[in-house]
Amino acid sequence: MKNISKKFLFVALGTLFVVVLAYVGCNQSKSSLSGNEAERVYVAPGNYDEFYLFTSGGFNGQMGVMGLPSGRHFKTISVFSQNPETGYGYSEETKAMLNTTYGFIPWDDAHHPELSMTDGVPDGRFIFINGNNTPRVARIDLKEFETKEIIEIPNSAGNHGSPFVTENTEYIVASTRFSVPIPQSDVPISSYKENFKGTISFIKLDPQTEKMNLEFQIIVPGFDYDLAHAGKGPSHDWAFFTSYNSEQANTLLEINASKNDKDFIAAVNWKKAEQYLKEGKAKTVDAEYYRNYIDDKTHTAVSQLNKQVKVLDPKDCPGMIYYLPTPKSPHGVDVDPTGQYIVAGGKLATVIPVHSFDKMIKAIEGKQFDGEVNGIPILKYDAVVAGEVSNPGLGPLHTEFDGNGYAYTSSFISSEIVKWKLGTWEVVDRIPTYYSIGHLCIPGGDSKKPWGKYVVALNKITKDRYLPTGPELTQSAQLIDITGDKMKLLLDFPTIGEPHYAQAIPAEILMKNSQKIYKIEENGNPYAVKSEKDTRVERKGNEVHVYMSAIRSHFSPDNIEGIKVGDVVYFHVTNLEQDWDIPHGFAMKGMNNAELLIMPGQTLSIKWEPKKVGVFPFYCSDFCSALHQEMQGYIRVSPANSNVQLSYSLGK
Amino acid sequence: MKTKSAVLIAIGALILILTFFFPLWTIDLDAPQYPEGLGLRIWLNEISGLRPNYLQNINGLNHYIGMKVIEPDAIPEMDIMPYIMVFMILFGLLNAYLRNKNLIYIWLILFVILGAIGIYDFYMWAYDYGHNLNPNAPIKVPGMTYMPPILGSKQLLNISAQSYPSVATFIILISILLNVAALYIGREKKNA
User: Fold this and answer.
1) Using CA atoms, how far apart are residues A141 and A593, in angstroms rounded to an integer?
2) A580–B64 C-beta distance less than 8 A
3) Is the pLDDT of residue B127 over 90?
4) Cα nearest neighbour of A581 on chain B
5) pLDDT grade for B192, boundaries at 50, 70 and 90
6) What ranges in B24-141 are assigned the alpha helix state H?
7) CA–CA distance, A333 with A407 (Å, rounded to integer)
8) Which residues of chain B are at the A interface, by a Cβ-Cβ cutoff of 8 Å?
9) Rounded to a whole number, what is the distance in angstroms from the first to the last CA of chain B?
10) Which residues of chain B make contact with A552, given a CB cutoff of 8 A?
11) How many residue contacts between A and B have a Cβ separation below 8 Å?
């Protein structure tokens, strides 16, 4: 009995010890900062951050613009989601941006921001982002920080592996996450293996017009395509795409798509594809898809419905595409700054496989194949692999590079970043993240010349890191210093939506080009007024067009009568200001869609259908001036059969 | 008169051409909301903002205190001044050719008088803009007028205004000094 109670005491004490240790350890992990971290991330009032950080909004369909090292949030760019705050997707000028062949889609799931590149280095012209749900790619102009173009991807179902760019932004790539019947048809789901296919799309960015065009698609076996990256330097002509579910399961993928030891990275020679395209090897296939763009002159979205796409079949195009066997259900595929190494994040793998571009070329030349799938040769793993990083953490997902010979891989399951050396493949450092990191971001970390000062961990779970806000907690990223031998956590900061991926660029590249106003004399919107003298109200049947101006601190006109129930009223509001940071808002009582936020020199239009008789106010909703509160007006709405004459005035 | 004097007079006339390319006067306005400043430049023939839209923005702000809109086209002096300057240049060149002392004196006196009129005119316009305010202005501060300074700086509500002569004015001064120097060099010694 004595022994038993002694044993019990030991166990109890031991347990207590472990608990205390865990508690201390826990507390240490939460406050393990020592030294000058605060100084490192402190950007004094009035000073600027060193980098812009563009974070994907995930399920909010937008993009966050933030600063590093402070982690401050500056702007949310509306991309795939309507934003009633500004009128994006509601105003007559912007709503066509969200047209798709499924109709008007006011939301999406935005995953991967990708900066345009010149010579493999971010050039600050554009940033692209994918709509994962209803397959789309958006182009955002970095002078205005506004979405300028959205192209839909046909024959795709879930544009996840996108929108990665080639070395000079010749192409933006897009691979489908879900394989589907192509063309779509009414077939049993269980006929997956025979009927379902994937596509890899190449969107060309016209060097002159800087507009996007779906140049061609490659039809590929019905796997799930996950992520991509284009080559650079020696691998310039190539782009790489990860795939999983090479098992071609159509149900319970978590089990059924995790069976094969190796899935594939598709290596696509896009130069060769261009050549086959020229030679007429592509089939022109009927496929409807929208391209929506903001017209440069009218600042108004135009929807263009395209009806055909050119499709290349690997069977007809030898040498265009190869499969690199890669363990196990790889997520990221990341090309190092030299363009030589292709790193795969095998999310269920115990190692990080690194393929060699040179070995790949030799293997192709030596025909070291291990079978083929649908006309795509599979290269022998041993013939292409350069090395494997052992002990890389559990669930390696994504790798970026610091430009000094090191790679940083995020490991989701073990919730850490692992730093390892290219060439020797040895792990040299690791740092925990809080918690469950997905992607990571080093400024320029997927380019030829990374600015390897920080790595940003983009986490999936925050749990106890912030003040709790009910069941839904903030999304979060972490800033880690990578200038020393040891990585050092500097800052936790919240992000908007889910930060799947982010890209960063030195502030100096963008801020000098940042536009302050729209020049009123260049405003080509057909509903614009260039001065207060031009303001007017016109009736066309039951359609009423109000050509209104806003300038501190009044609208013109601000008294309108003769509107009737049943009319469709369009307010075309031009902000006549030509002063920096003086937007005006336009808010109408009972407006069923949105308010407008109009930038200096811009015209935005919004539809209002009055349903009640009475006099209704409108006002400026962006505090513009000392007399902002006086910036208001009235609209009289008369019964449908009334004969109140249309009239309008200001100051009478 | 010596050739040296004639050369100085000619230079004095020719450098006046530069007055078409530089402002006569600068008025810089600073306000808490305008960290980048709001500069006005007064030229021979126009008033402009240092950056595009500055004049428009200044007018926009001025309407709150009831100041008239500054419209360079509405200031007739600005139409005349370029001709006056062309006349003075040609007159100067003629003097360099004729080397007539009396004509040079006339040129000098005329220029000084024109300059004085110019500054007086500038003062009158500034006075008018600053005092002749719309009685229905939203912002009325008892006893407050908004005449910008002609020389020096002045606080006008939230705006600090600094007003100083600029390059073209200094060119005019140099031109006058060159003519004075020409007369000095060219003076005939009495009893020689």
Assistant:
1) 26
2) no
3) yes
4) B33
5) very low
6) 54-62, 77-98, 101-131
7) 13
8) 36, 52-53, 56-57, 60, 64, 138-139
9) 15
10) 60
11) 21
Q: What is the least distance, in Å, from the CA of B60 to any CA of chain A?
A: 7
Report ipTM for this prediction. 0.84
**Which range (A23-32, A155-164, A538-547) has the least confidence?**
A23-32
AA identity, residue A241: F
What's the pLDDT at B33?
Answer: 87
CA distances, A122 to each of A142, A451, A480, A550 (Å):
12, 11, 21, 38
Q: CA B126, CA B145: separation in Å to the nearest integer?
A: 11
Q: Are A580 and B36 an interchain contact pair (Cβ–Cβ within 8 Å)?
A: yes
Residues on chain B touching A517 (C-beta within 8 angstroms): 53
Gap between the Cα atoms of B116 and B122, Å rounded: 10
| This prediction's pTM | 0.91
Q: Least CA distance to B54: which residue of chain A? A: A579
One-letter amino acid of A23: Y
Give the CATH number of domain B3-185.
Answer: 1.20.140
What gap in Å lies between CA A21 and CA A32, rounded to an integer?
15
Residue holding tokens 């990571």?
A440
Taking contacts as CB-CB distances below 8 angstroms, the residues of chain A near B136 are none
**CA end-to-end distance (rounded Å), chain A:** 102
Contact A428/A36 with Cβ under 8 angstroms? no
Domains of chain A as residue ranges with CATH: 59-511 (2.130.10.10), 522-649 (2.60.40.420)
pLDDT digit string, tens, across residues A292-335: 999 999 999 999 999 999 999 999 999 999 999 999 999 999 99
Q: Spell out the SS3 assignment of A540-607.
A: ECCEEEEEEEEECCEEECCEEEEEECCCEEEEEEEECCCCCCCCEEEEECCCCCCCEEECCCCEEEEE
Residues 511-530 of A with CB under 8 A from B: 517, 519
Angle at A343 between CA A140 and CA A413, to 5 degrees: 90
Q: Where are the domains of chain B?
A: 3-185
- The most distant pair of C-alpha atoms in chain A lies apart, rounded to whole Å, by 104
- Over the stretch B63-96, which tens digit does the pLDDT of each residue have? 999 999 999 888 899 999 999 999 999 999 999 9
Q: Rounded to an integer, what distance in angstroms lies between the CA atom of residue A74 and that of residue A496?
A: 11
Is B139–A517 a contact, with Cβ atoms under 8 angstroms apart? no
Q: CB–CB of A411/A439 below 8 Å?
A: no
Q: How far is A43 from chain B (nearest CA, A)?
A: 19
